[in-house]
Every structure is written in structure tokens, then in C-alpha cells.
Amino acid sequence: MNPLSPSLRASAQTRACFTLSAAATAVAAAFPLLACAQSEPQPQATVAAAGNDSTQQTSDSQTLQRVTLTAGRPSSLPTEIPTTIEGIDAKTMERSINATDAEDALKYLPSLLVRKRYIGDYNHAVLATRASGTGNSARSMVYADGILLSNLLGNGAGFTPRWGLVTPEEIERVDVLYGPFSAAYAGNSVGAVVDYITRMPTQFEAHVKAQAFTQDFKLFNTDKSYSGHQTSASIGDKNGPWSWWINVNEADSNGQPLVFANRLVSAGVPVTASAIPVSGAVLDKNPKNQDWLMLGTTTQYHTLQDHAKVKLAYDISPTIRASYTFGYWHNSTDGNVESYLRDAAGNAVYTGNVAINGRQYTLTPADFTPNKNVLEHLTHGFDVKSNTKGTWDWEIAASLYDYNKDILRSWMPSTASATSAANPNAGRITDMAGTGWNTVALKGIWRPQDAAGHTVEFGYQREAYKLRTSVFDTANWTDGAASGLFSGFNGDTQLQSLYAQDAWRINQQWKTILGGRFEQWRADNGSIASKTTVQPFGTRDEHYFSPKAALSYHQDSDWTYKASVGRAVRMPTVSELYQGSLSGTNIVNNDPNLKPEKSWTSELTAERSLNNGAGILRATFFHERTKDALYSQVNAAASSTVTTIQNVDDIRTNGIELAYQASDAFVRGLDLTGSLTYTDSEILRNDKFPASVGKQQPRVPNWRANFVATYRQDDKLSYTLGARYSGKQYGTLDNSDPNGNSYTGFGSFFVADVRVRYQLARQWTGSIGIDNLNNAKYWAFHPYTQRTVMAELKFDY
């Protein structure tokens, strides 16, 4: 964001040679993790990210070309960056963002949107990018200190990155690499790669932070305040070859209602004697502009989250470091319900036949279903890396993400039958213990001494995903034991890759990067079970090659031009292949023979350095052509009425992204950041659902814009005004949902945010902020938060 941010200056060629330590990833074994390398010296490369995140900049016009990273900073990014990078550092975040969750760091970056519905949203906060909407979580990759946080077990709202493994207070920097242009990443990078770098101290330091927040939420017949608080503490030090860091965080959050029980007005039938006359239903329009009644709310979450992070690093020699990262995340959530309906005595009505405005409707237990969710997830990261800056450097890295405990309990009372009475306490238990993923990477860098200007990066990577889901009946949904299997789905996928890319600095003006990635994908152990049947699926083995290329021309101290092109193959996830149900022995809603998505992406960029390197103006034209895109739809060509995950034949996306950043713009102390993105994403062919051809890709709006202005009155006081805009979008492939301002709709929005930060004393800082200052009411299937006020107090030692 802020042009002084070290992340900003890494935009592909212009920010040449981003010498970072690659991922601090991990398995549950032994090597401690290697922190970052420092960039290779180069003239006019003066941006430093050092010590306690202090960023320095000279007046040289080439300041924006390079990022220098000190030891202690692992990163998943490769040494050579062949595309656009945007980012933000810790100081800019603290000044300008009301950050309560890690994903808030991305709030104002170009073309990005995180579907964060409330503070602490753990299961629907999907990242959307230039050509991918909030239903495509598997089209981006999120790392923290090299550990993969993207949940690539599935694709969609239920498979969000595990943002909770990072707290805002421990973030040192966030970098976002746009597009699949680096050979170092799998096809899931087609949208973007997000890399969180968390703190690693160079001397003793300690931090404590407390936050409180509240919103007044008014929608339909809900008029309540929902509040929460969060505390975080960190401590770390470096003693000789050893360095260590510990961060703990606890959050207690009450979110607004997310789901609304409803009935189409047209579904009403003549009133019978059994119907209870009720009041309180709210008439509204659904996304298709049909009249419907809002009957009450469900999934009003009360969330308790605990986080702990331990990082250790040891300098084996002056050029070799080993590191280890352990992360713990515990989430306990109660999903509460409330009916709007009242009988003549004022009692809430939740079940049975009801009469509303002369029509009868039947309420079922599924309309108001409370639930409880308890998760305990663990991560381990290990890394050993050399940093000689000579002819050879290498890295060994591994990571493990483990669903140590993952239980969802839902109320689902049984109905009476000829042999049994109804059980009002019955429900279901969904257990995902044993689910998780692990990664291994062997990486090398070769700088041939007899071939000036070449840097060759290569490596081997393995990613393995395991999905284990069992659904049981239980006599007591709140705390009863499992009594019998209701359904289950299991499966494994594995991706093994070899990659290489050569960055050749031809001369002072020209540079090219050529690379490729060979991938072997395997899916096995797939099965779907019902109460009486288990349906296994066969093994699939496939392989693909994805070439990459980039070219940069540095015209002079002010202008740089870049072009990048890359292929990405996004493999079907375990969930897309195997998570479904059975009708007899037939799979109902998934297809184990899905094809992978295959995308060709390209971009052309022109960058202009402003005010001797204190700002930058960038224009990027991007194009993407995706074959066999994975979407949930009805196979109309086969006269089916069942929605399944299928391949959409051809989607084309064109767009332009404008980005501007400047420090001390117009007046001293004023930092400006802004971006504007236009996207035209059209479905060109879809044989299974022809009604979608010529329509806009779901959840990809035509227009997006962000703007942030921060005024630093002095070293102690700053004021920030931020704004976010998203244009019209659709949630369906055939764009049959024109009303986005409704439950289950996807609407346009304009939201303003403010923040004031003041340093109370040498070690004390206080901040007050408001998100959604204009109190916009907008939707992404569920309602977003309304005006939210927050305050925080921080102590730094």
C-alpha cells in the first residue's frame, strides 16, 4: 500500500532480483526452519526491511526496484519474481487498517476481495482475485512463513484459507504475486499467491494488544448489537545463533445472523384448521425478484478462538540456518437461531403449520437448525537453507497441517414412525479428524559464474491432501455419542512437481525469465458411504506441463514495461471428486472423473516511477482463457434436475488494472494508495448448461476500486480514510439473479472506513476506527457486517 512498504517495490522486472528465502514449510519431523536470506547487492537498490520493520528509502530514482530482506524472514516467494507484486508492511497496516484478522491486511490491495462476513469468520472468508470470484477458493494460494494455509481439500466457501493461524500483530509484511507466472507454484496460483511474513526478532522485544469492537445490526426484524474483544501477546529474542518468537491470541466475537429462514409467497397453500396464525414475517424480494417471506435467522455465531505460534531458528553456520514453526488454532462456535414469528400470545413459533397473510406454510426443523462447531488444528513447519550468495544455494522445506479435532454438531430431530417415537434432541455429528495436508520441497539456486546475468532456480515439490469425513446420527445433538454412520466420504490426492526457471539479465535494460513446471497428479482411496453402502472409486494418474515466460524492458529511471504469460493446471480437489451422496450405488452430486481446469494467463504492464521513487503509477492489462472450469450446475443437456460439480467448457476474462501509490503526495505527510480494476469475464461455451453462454462469470464484478489516504500529522498522530467499491455481480452461471441486495444475492457495494492512531507515550499506542462508516447493507450470499466501531490499545517493548 504505502509506497515506502518494502513489498511494493517488487513488481517483477522493475523490482529486479527479489532475493528471498523460500518457504519455511514443514512436516511433523525434525529440521528447524531457515529464515530469510538477504538480497544480493546491486547498485541503486536501497529499500530495506530490517530490524523492527523499519523501512528506509533514499532519494535515488531506482529505489522502487528492489527489496532487501534481512535474516529471520522466511518467505515462500522465489528469488526471481516474473510478474506484478503488491503488498503492505506492518507499519502501514498499523496506521491505516482496522485489522482484527489476518485477511484484513489484503483489504485495500488491487483487485482483491476477501469475503469476510464478520470478525473471526473461520469458514467462509474466501479470497477473490482478478478473474476468480469468492466461490473459487482453490484458485489462489496463501502461505504464512512458507506454510501452506490454503485449504485445497475443496473449492468454495467451506474451504477457506486458515487465516486464524496468523494474527495481525505478528505480521511483518504481506506480499501478493498476481497470476500463475512463476514456475515455483502449482496451478492453484492461477489467481494469486499471498505470502505472510511474520516477525522474527533481532533483539529482545515484547508486545501486548487489546481490541474491542461492536456493531449495531438492523435487517428485517433483527435489531441488535453484536460485540466482541480480542487480546494478543508476543515475545521474542535473538541470542547468538538462536532466535525465537512466541505469539498467543484470544478472540471472543459475536457475529450478526448469516442465514434466514424463508418461504416463497407463491408456495403458500389454503389455510387449514391446523395452522397457527402468526405475525412477524417480513416481505422481501429474492435474488430473482420473486416475493418471499423472511421468517427468522439462523447461524448467528458466537465464536471463541485461541491461537498460539512458536518459532525457533538456529544459525548452523554464517550461511546456513535451520528453523521450526509450530502453530495451534482452536475454534469453538455456537450457531444460534431466532424466529421472527409470534403467535397470538407472543410466543416464538419454530415448527408446524403457520398462517401468514391468508396463506399456510409448513415450518420444518431444517428451517431453524442450531449447531456447535469445535476445531483444533495444528501446523508444523521445518526448513534448512543455505545463503552463500555464491554459485550454489539450496533449501529443504516441509510442512504439515493437521485437523487434530474437527467436530460439527447439528440439531436434526427425528420424525415419528410406526416403530419409534420422535426424538426432539436428535441430531448429526460430522467428524473430520484425520483430514489435512503436507508438503515437501527441495529447492536450488544456480548462479553460473561463466554466464553473467543468469540465475537458475529449480526444485522438486510434493503436496499431499487427505479428506476424511464421517457423519453420524446421535440421540443428543449437543453432547451425545455417535450412534451409527449416516454418510461418509474419503479420498486422497497428491501432486509431485519438478520445476525450473532461468532469469537472464541480458543487459541493464532487458531481462527475461523462462521456466516450466512438470506435474504428476494422483487421486486415490476415494469412496462415498451411506448407511448401507460404500462406493469406492478407482485411482487416477495424470501429468501436465505448464510453461512460463516473462520479459522486462527498463527504459530509464522512470519507465518500465513488462510482459508475462503462463499456463496453469488447477487439479480437481478431493472434495470436488468425492464429497457427495449415494442413491443406491450411484453417486448423486459429484463426479470422480472431473477434468482439471486449464488456464492460459497473460499480462502487459507499464510502470511509471513518480517523484524520484516516492510513488508509482501502474497499468496492467490481463487476459485469461480457462478451459474445463469447475463449477456447480445442472446438466440441462441431460435433462437432469440435480446440481453437480461439472466442467464448464470455456471462460474468457479480459481486464485492466490501474494502481497508484505515493508518499508525501501533494503535501508532506500525506500517503495515497488507490486502484481501479475493470474485468470482462464471459462464459463462451458450456454444453451442459447452454443458458449460461454469453453470461458473466459468477462473483466476478465488472468494476472494483480501493482508495486509502493516510495523513501523518506528526510522528505520533495519523488519520486514515479508506474506501472500497465492488460493482454488480451475479451468483449464478446463467445470471438469473439480478437482485443482489437480498439474502443469497451478490450485490454491489461502496464502503468507507476511518482510523485514527495516536502514540500515547514512548511504548503505548491507541487507535480508534470505524469500518463501514456509511453503514451500507450489502450481501455476498450472507449479509456483511454493518457499521462497526473498534478501539485498540497496544504496548511495545
Draw up the topology in text.
Layout (H helix, E strand, L loop, with lengths): L47 E3 L3 E3 L11 E2 L15 E5 H7 L16 E2 L12 E2 L12 E4 L2 E2 L22 E8 L13 E7 L6 E15 L2 E18 L2 E13 L4 E6 L11 E2 L4 E4 L5 E27 L2 E20 L12 E5 L2 E5 L7 E16 L5 E20 L15 E5 L4 E11 L7 E21 L7 E24 L4 E20 L4 E3 L3 E15 L4 E12 L3 H5 L3 E2 L2 E2 L9 E14 L4 E20 L8 E20 L7 E16 L17 E10 L4 E10 L22 E11 L4 E8 L7 E2 L1 E2 L4 E9 L1
Parallel strand pairs: 1-3, 7-10, 15-19
Antiparallel strand pairs: 1-2, 4-9, 5-6, 7-8, 9-10, 11-12, 11-43, 12-13, 13-17, 14-17, 16-17, 17-18, 18-21, 19-20, 21-22, 22-23, 22-24, 23-25, 24-25, 25-26, 26-27, 27-28, 27-29, 29-30, 30-33, 31-32, 33-34, 34-35, 35-36, 36-37, 37-38, 38-39, 39-40, 40-43, 41-42
CATH architecture group name: Beta Barrel
Structure summary, number of beta strands: 43
What is the C-alpha radius of gyration, as a whole number of Å? Answer: 26 Å
- Summarize the biggest pleated sheet: 26 strands, antiparallel
How many helix segments?
A: 2
How many domain modules?
A: 1
Question: What proportion strand?
Answer: over 45%
Helix percent band: under 10%
